[in-house]
Structures are given as structure tokens and as C-alpha cells.
Amino acid sequence: MGLQHSTREWRFALRRWMYRGGHPDRLARLANRLTARQFSAGLLSPQRAVTLEVRGRRSGRVVTLPLVVTELAGERYLVSMLGNDANWVRNVRAAGGRAVLIRGGRTPVRLEEVDPGQRAAILRRYLAVAPGARPHVPVDRNAPLEEFERIADRYPVFRITQAPTSRPELP
Which of 80, 85, 78, 74 is nearest to 101 (CA)? Predict the structure, then answer.
């Protein structure tokens, strides 16, 4: 148990280091690019692994990154493990929630931000299915719901809904 515990701590520390200041460093960006391609193709990854595609708020270029879809009570969600200042969160907000999810094919979606008062259970479920996010969220995945309620305003959650058919492409 000691070796397993120290290995897990080392991996957590590495992941936190790769995202110092809440943003990915060069190594993390490279890993994200490779993982996004893998998730887009649907190869060797869990079914909940997707690639998000959203228009950059400043550059106007399409930005892609790998994310984990969290399901709870029949709804699907995306969660920002890096909090409110993550670029993809700012881009989604600037795009009015318009985005595309890719996994084998492209699915235009609308991402609706969930009120902080409704995020706790979703955040707990997210940590259960997204082990890579655990080093970035200061609550144990098995913690009582009250602990998730205390941090809910710091971690945006977006409900995935179907995009209107009249505008299937990114803005």
C-alpha cells in the first residue's frame, strides 16, 4: 500500500506541476493535443472521453481539447478541473455556449452553465469518473456533498444540450 500511495502522490504532484497557475505548460499542451486526437477518434479511451471544439474568443481560431463527459440523473455535463479561469470556459462563455463534441463524429452542442447551487453532486460524480482531475480539485472524491457545495462556485459545470439545427457550425 505504501508504494501505491507514494506513486499516486507523485502522479498528482506531476499533474499539478503541469498546470501551474491554472494553465497547461508545454508538456500538458502536447499531451492534450495527443489525447484530443485519441478521444476524437474514439480509440483506446473510455466512452465518456470526448474532444471539445470551440471558437477562440480572441483569435477566432477553433480550439480543441480533451474532456470527460460526466453523466448524472440522465443529463450530461462538462466540468472545468482548472476552475473559472480555464481558457475553454472563457471561450464557451464568449461563444454563447456553441461548441462541437467529437468522438468518432462531430456533434454540435449547446453548453448551458449550471448554477453553482446545483453543481455539488455533479462535481462529486466528475471526480469519480475523471481521475486526472482529482489533483486539481481540493476535495476528496468520497467527501460529503457539503464539501463540494463549498467549492462549487470555483468549478464551472456546463450541461450538454442539443444545438439548434438552424446553426450547426461554430460561430
Answer: 78
